[in-house]
Amino acid sequence: MQDFVDYSMESLGDSGQHIWDDYEPSKNFFVSDKIFVHFLQKELSPDAWSFLQPKLVKLGKLAASTLNELSISAHMHSPKFVKRDLFGRDIDNIIFHPSRHELMKAANQTRMMGSSAITFLSPEFEGQQYRMGYALPYILALSDSSVTNIIGMKDAFGQIMKRYANPELQAKFIENDYLLGPENASEVCFCFRENAAGLKFDAISTKAIPLRDGVYKISGEKSHCENIHAHLKLVLAAVPSENNEKPKLSIFLIEGNNKPGVSKEFEIKNLDQKLGMHSLPVGDLLFKDCTAFLLGEEGQGMEILEELMKVTNIWSSISAVAGFRRSLVEAYQYACYQTYDGNRRLLDHPSTLAKLEALNNQFVADFYLLWKTIRMMDKTGPEKPHLESNLNHLIPLIKNHCVNSAISGIGQSMKIMESHGYMEQGVIPKFIKDCLALPLLHQSSIHTVSVIVKNWAEVQDISSFFEPLTSSLEHFPDLELLKVELKKLLSHIEESRYDDPDFLDFNADKIMKNLIMYIQLSMLLHQEDHESAAWIHPAINQIKANFLGQNSLLALPVGAQKIIGQLAWGF
User: Fold this and answer.
1) What is the phi/psi pair of residue 365, to 5°?
2) pLDDT at 565
3) Is residue 110 classed as helix, strand or coil in its secondary structure?
4) Strand ranges in 121-265 using DSSP code E only, listed in sequence order
5) Lowest mean pLDDT among 95-109, 222-236, 434-448
6) CA distances from 321 to 281, 304, 426, 544 (A)
């Protein structure tokens, strides 16, 4: 491909010299990422690759330069909330640092973010649209998590609109908005939660009163609204039922207009000060007889919400895995150029090599877990209903794991960079804060893992999901013990549904950790080829060691060149 990068260390100079003065960061996040380039070239058709590759190269260069600088600036300047203007009028204005506007404008220039955009532009790529649609966001996420998730919300909105909105609404809010150009692209706000209701959606008090066909008036207060300033708002509200029946939870679309002098239908009550994701503001909204359009049918709210969460969970996973990759690369590049004990490179220190190898194995397992799941999304269809069911259980599990794994991996990468890793003007503090804020976006809590595991336990035949893996293990004699342990684990999960209701809650974390490792193993076993063996084979060995309790065994040191091959990142 164009601009191919030499992955050897020969260009880094003599390791006996202090070479900080020669340090240069990556110039293209796509061209440098051999793991991602290899995966896409192997997965996509020649036509799809030819169509996508120039766009990835262009965005990769932008992400490594302009977007990277804007992201750091936006992160260090949180948005400000102005309730009233000079004359005492309520304006409910959220003021962003100029870097945030430039960041969104630059990101929108690609005009091809997410599967809904790919389908709209190029229907001939059916069957590859998810891998193609999520490739650009992955490169973007190597620079910034907030904007990636903002575009992810718009992607989820687009998919929901295509399925549940009438043609008139689709034309107004999807096709026309998309064709307006990057400067005028609308953002989307999600308003699903209420402080009083907590995680109980049945307790939602926001009411939707019908006016005419498909048009309602909404009143109520929503908390932790994501991307609160956005022009378009999706709201979860209850439509009262007759005869004291249960209210019908439904999803509504609101087109906002809160300019001074205009009668306001909603009010921004406050802006939350959260840990990360500063370009994606969160706060509370009060709706006052606000005109709204029903999406789908009355009572379909939870169904639509689950579909929205499935899409945004993938975007969160992309942000987490990309943030992990970028942080690991930052630590690796730091180790290449920093010295210790006089003139020795930090990269040559055995403890640095051991840590980089362990972190890269962790990243590789997460990378293929994510992208093979996205590949599975491309294979779904009416003739394969079991895949859709599997994905409904798999995606929440993957999102939860990828975020937690990224937080751990980014923290360890920070330690490799010593005191430099903790400086706010660097990228690693930004990424770890953004990953810590990801659970806020999608209603994760301490009980999330328990809920996910219980959903897995409710699968009628959980063993069938793992049948491809158990069949694969038969071809690897050294993995026979893993096959036995997998059957034991699945048996425990199935039996616990009837024997002890607290068993799954108490062991949820352990069960999820083991399920993830088995799924990761299944994703990796048949992905290895001559080129990718350099990074996949060590990751497989690490998973096997985790299962067999061999992590405490002593090992011979490895050389820097081997670790460089595993990291597969060009300067």
Assistant:
1) -60, -40
2) 95
3) coil
4) 188-191, 207-212, 215-226, 232-239, 248-255
5) 434-448
6) 22, 26, 18, 22
Query: Which residue type occupies 404?
Result: N
Maximum average pLDDT range among 193-207, 389-403, 434-448: 389-403
Q: Which two tokens stand for residue 329?
A: 């690369």
Read off the tokens for 283: 């706060």
Which uninterrupted H or E stretch holds 82? strand 80-84
Cβ atoms of 508 and 453 within 8 Å: the answer is yes
Alpha helices (H) in 165-292, listed in sequence order: 167-170, 176-179
Helix (H, G, I), strand (E, B) or coil at 277: coil
Apex 397 CA angle, 422 and 536, nearest 5: 70
Per DSSP, the three-state class of 526 is coil
pLDDT tens digits, 7-36? 444 444 444 434 456 677 899 999 999 999
pLDDT score at 460: 53
Taking each helix axis from N to C end, the angle separating 146-164 and 301-337, rounded to the nearest 10 degrees, works out to 150
Instruction: Kindly list the structural domains of the chain, giving each domain's residue range(s) and its CATH number in brackets, ordered by start.
Output: 1-444+560-571 (1.20.140.10), 448-526 (no CATH)
pLDDT, residue 33, reads 98
Contact 334, 417 (CB under 8 A): yes
Q: For residue 132, which amino acid is it?
A: M
Helix/strand/coil for 340: strand
Mean pLDDT, residues 474-493 taken together: 80
Q: What percent of the chain has pLDDT over 90?
A: 51
- Number of other CB atoms surrounding residue 178 within 10 Å: 17
Two structure tokens written together for 511: 């069960």
298 neighbors 239 (Cβ within 8 angstroms):
yes
Structure tokens at 456: 């897995």
Cα radius of gyration (the chain)? 24
How many residues are listed for the chain in this entry? 571
Tell me the whole-structure pTM to 2 decimals: 0.91
| Residue 17: per-residue pLDDT | 39
